[in-house]
Amino acid sequence: MSIIDDERLADAYNKGLSLERAGDRDGAATAYRQCLTLDPADHGGAAVRLAALGLGDVPDKAPDAYVATLFDQHADVFEDMLVRQLRYEVPSRLAAHLLKAGPFNRVLDLGCGTGLVGEALRDRSEEIVGVDLSESMVELCDEKEIYDHLFVGEAVSFLGDDDGSGDEDEDGGGGLFDVVTAADVLPYLGDLDPLVGGVARRLVPGGRFGFSTETMSEERLAGRAFTVGPGQRFHHSDGYVRDCLDRHGFDIETFEPITVRLQEGEPAPGHLVVAQRRGGGGA
Questions:
Q1: pTM of the predicted model as reported, rounded to 2 decimal places
Q2: Measured between alpha carbons, how far is 152 from 242 in angstroms, rounded to an integer?
Q3: Long-range contacts of 70-77 (CB under 8 A, 24+ apart)
Q4: 245-261 burial, b if ≥16 CB within 10 A, otherwise e?
């Protein structure tokens, strides 16, 4: 099913999907390039589809318009699809690792979705702030009354909005945090430096960053730090993730191989990661 509303754009996008399924990669690529001409903001994610086909450059991230559109249109079925059908258990497993260091004063949940991480951390957290690109997701999350503050926004931009003083803004989004989480965020990012650097700036010394990644074999990565896989999701090499964390002042506490979810019925390999910002004894 198309995630595009505009008729001309939807026709081009659906043509690309049909040709891709039929094995006509070049024809699909032509259709996806037409999508980019019609819609430079790329609500359909044509750029990541081209990259997955190996017929376009791998972008630094999935387009914001694509991520927001995708999750807006799947918000009502998100939990059923992700948890029950795709067997996604990252939030509970991530919380189990983080809570060894709890309780927490302030938690920032990037890509909060419908609040699965927030639910798992709520009882041990004084304040939880949630951020998501999808307005529909945030609306559903708000109905659960899990978070103290919710924002519609892109993760890296949100991290950069703070003035660095450590003081909280009136709306609750500023200042520093004991914990930052990003469950199922990295599969929509290629270049991790902006995210990890932003998290480091918003954590107290000794604060923790917990997240999940998806990966593939070194043979398939072929020496690349990251690439886009067949499911239009970003996959990162283990070494790249570790180096990025070290470069931004983190020590790794947990780097656990996991099955992140099912992808077209097959286990999607990745890692559950908890890293501590250097400079303090604990959160």
A1: 0.90
A2: 29
A3: 70/3, 70/45, 70/134, 71/113, 71/132, 71/133, 71/134, 71/136, 71/137, 72/134, 72/135, 72/136, 72/137, 73/3, 73/136, 75/114, 75/134, 75/136, 75/137, 75/139, 75/140, 76/136, 76/140
A4: beebbbeebbeeebebb
User: How do residues 201-254 score in pLDDT, each as one tens digit?
Assistant: 999 999 999 999 999 888 889 899 999 998 889 999 999 999 999 999 999 999
Q: Which of 30-34, 71-75, 124-128 has the lowest mean pLDDT?
A: 71-75
User: Residue-wise over 234-243: b if at least 16 C-beta within 10 A, else e?
Assistant: bbbbeebbbe
Strands of the chain (E only): list them: 104-110, 125-132, 149-152, 177-182, 203-214, 226-228, 234-236, 250-263, 266-277
| CA 39 – CA 220 distance, rounded (Å) | 31
Q: Residue 52: its pLDDT value, please?
A: 94
To which residue do tokens 């070494």 refer? 239
The stretches of 75-126 forming alpha helices (DSSP H) are 78-79, 90-98, 116-121
Cα–Cα dist 30/62, whole Å: 19
Residue 191 has φ and ψ, to the nearest 5°, of -70, 115
Q: Looking up tokens 């086909």, which residue turns up?
A: 53
Residue 117 scores a pLDDT above 90: yes
In single-letter form, the type of residue at position 148 comes to D
Residue in the structure block whose two tokens are 């009354």:
145
Residues 41 and 9: their CA atoms lie apart, in Å, by 12
